[in-house]
Amino acid sequence: MIPEPKELRTEEMLLNMGPQHPSTHGVLRLVVKLAGEEVLDVVPHIGYLHTGFEKTMENRTYHQNITYTPRMDYLHSFAHDLAYALSVEKLLGAEVPERARVIRVILNELSRIASHLIFVATGLLDLGALTPFFYAFREREAILDLFEWVSGQRFHHNYIRIGGLREDLPEEFVPELKKFLDTFDHRVDDYQGLFVGSPIFEGRARGVGVISAEDAIAYGLTGGSLRASGVNYDVRKAYPYCDYETYDFEVPLGERGDTWDRMVVRLEEMRQSARIIRQGLERLEPGPIRDPNPHFSFPPRELLATSMEAVIYHFKLATEGFEVPPGEVYVPTESARGELGYYIVADGGSMPYRVKVRAPSFFNLQALPVAARGQFFQDLVAILASLDPVMGDVDR
Amino acid sequence: MIGALFVTAVKALVLILALLFAFAYITWIMRRGLARFQVRLGPNRVGPFGLLQPIADAVKAIFKEDITVAQADRLLYWLAPLLAFTFALAAFAVIPVGPDGWVVANLDMGVLYVFAASELAIYGVFLAGWASGSKYPLMGGLRSIAALVGYELALGMAILPVVLMAGTLNLQEIVEWQKQHGYFIVYQLPAFLIYFIASLAEMSRTPFDFAEAEQELVAGFHTEYSSTKFVAFYIAELLHWIVGSALIATLFLGGWDAPFGLPEIPVLWLFVKWALFIFLVLWIWASWFRTRYDQMIRFAWGVLLPAATVWFLITAYYVVKGGMA
User: Fold this and answer.
1) Which residues 25-44 on chain B approach chain A with CB closer than 8 angstroms?
2) What SS3 class is residue B46?
3) Which residues, at least 6 apart from B39, have a Cβ–Cβ distance to it below 8 Å?
4) Three-class SS of residue B248?
């Protein structure tokens, strides 16, 4: 007689992942409940990168705040500058000149490409592919050099001003940008060749971490993560700003909402961004780059020597800033991660009464448990990467 | 008797030193080679072309603080790197580097010995995961056992046709057979492909390197190891790569035999063929993704094992009918 085998005693394992972990994209902490290698539940714990920027911004003038905005989403930092400026400009009723709007679009799309490059690089790294990481960084390096040319900074540009831009583009910028665009489309094809169609990648990403369109909407997903689920919502199309409605570009959509779709949608978005930049370059005509309204724009430097009035305005703007009429405003924009907007309450003073950022990473991260439940632990990091959270954007 | 023992001991010593030297320089080749695939330079600061980098790495690693986790099972925690290291090194003893005497141990069941030694090395990995008293290493250790269950049968099955055709388990005789009749990669291409794929898993290289998947498991089974114990694991891991590549070269590419009628020089030709496989594995490492371990097991049991079995039967039929043996 063979004795009946005793039932094997098994336990669920609670695994703490992060805040120090190679692939939690900064300082995210996940508490993962595992049955063997199967993920039963994931609880994201956030707040390790909380900086209190929103609160700090209440005690700084409207112009000073531009220092803080890019530091939230350090990958697509230009989007934060732009979203903030658009909100304040709407309250002020500022008129941004044509040239400034075009430059803003060009730089915003460049910054989006840089951000998506990081996304593809780290996303594939989380699936165990080492090489694409270095290739993508080569392209990103070129973009950061362009930004350095424009603003003197690679990450936190501080280039946008309320009502326009800090200064005009340097001479070298346009030819260098054209040089970059010449090779870029070809390079994106290369990246696509590195993973799309590879059976191992298909096996790791197809049908993994599915978020249905209903779930995506219910959890407030926006950006590439939402569009991968097949929902056509791009703020640049739905609520255009900076004349995006006049640019000709497509919004790539996924079908299944799995990791594969989220990867490929963003790859395609890079191509569309390059398309927008090309159109922007054609529209680039010489002209003013700032609203000349002296109440919030610094007077031209040369006037300071001849005009007393200019000196007074300069002094007022530099010391106490400008006053913004009371009101509330929210201008949605499309960052690389999704809908981004600054909700600003102005009380008539030179500092905002309250600033609240609608940060896309925060909402996108909410969907992680939905996507990861029932998946393998090995896929969890890939799913997390495919949602593209930036912790600075989540915690603020 | 004493004399023979002495000769063997000297041979073993030379081999161990050569292997450890090879190990040191394979880290250099690995890092420089990967860098070439990845549009960067790799280590080139320490010595000419960065050639002294392995020494600098070793000195750095050894002088790190040796930490034992409080919850670790001390005996096993200490034993694991030793096991991994010893068996990885031991496997090379039967691989012939030249004709006749150019082998440490000319065993009649050499193939079985290599298998036994390299599979025992898994104990090092598994015990490390178990004894660390930590969750990430535990998962790494379990994955390596799961992988073993997956690739082991396919690996063994793929080698049987070679043994059948050569009619021997002695690696020296297998090489001699190939010297006379031509290399097994010609006769046994399917077996070669299956064996190569399975041995990627055995060497725990991309795409089957999930036991130490940095992205999920931090460093897998050796997360909690530091200093010399870490170095032992690191050496063991690369020795697997070295031994695995040498074994493929011996089994399927004629080992030390000089190809195309070129002059016969011991060590050299095995080295050339070995380097070929080292490069191939590096290439795969630079270009592919990591599979999920359940996918790998499904692939091993669903594709590799049946294919190997069918090919084994075909070979057996041919050998019996054609009287090749």
Assistant:
1) 34, 37-40
2) coil
3) A134, A135, A138
4) helix
Chain B residues in contact with A129 (beta carbon < 8 A):
287-290
Would you say residue A17 has pLDDT above 90? no
Q: Cα(A34)–Cα(A14) distance, rounded to whole angstroms? A: 6
Q: Do A203 and B292 touch (CB under 8 A)?
A: yes
Q: Is the pLDDT of residue B3 over 80?
A: no
Residues of A in contact with B213 (CB under 8 A): 128, 378
* Separation of alpha carbons B271 and B246, rounded Å: 8
Task: Mark yes or no for CB contact A134/B39 under 8 Å.
Answer: yes
The two structure tokens encoding residue B119: 């599979």
CB B281 within 8 A of CB B29: no
Q: Which of B289, B297, B298 to mutate to test the interface with A (most CBs of A within 10 A)?
A: B289
Residue B297 amino acid letter: I
Asked whether the beta carbons of A233 and A226 are under 8 A apart, the reply is yes
Question: CB burial class (10 A; 0-12, 13-18, 19+) of residue B4?
Answer: exposed
Whether A317 and A193 have beta carbons less than 8 Å apart is answered as no
The alpha-helical segments, DSSP class H, found in B208-292 are: 214-217, 227-252, 268-287
Encode pLDDT of B23-57 as tens digits.
Answer: 788 888 888 888 888 888 888 888 788 888 888 88
Q: What is the mean pLDDT of residues A127-141?
A: 86
DSSP of A177-231: HHHHHHHHHHHHHHHHHHHTT-HHHHHHHTTSS---HHHHHHTT--THHHHTTT-
SS3 of chain A: helix, strand, coil, percent, to 5: 50, 10, 40
DSSP code of residue A35: E
- DSSP 3-state of A165: strand
Residue with tokens 């790539």: A252
Pairing assessment for the beta strands A160-161 and A29-35 based on DSSP bridges: unpaired
Predicted ipTM beyond 0.90? no
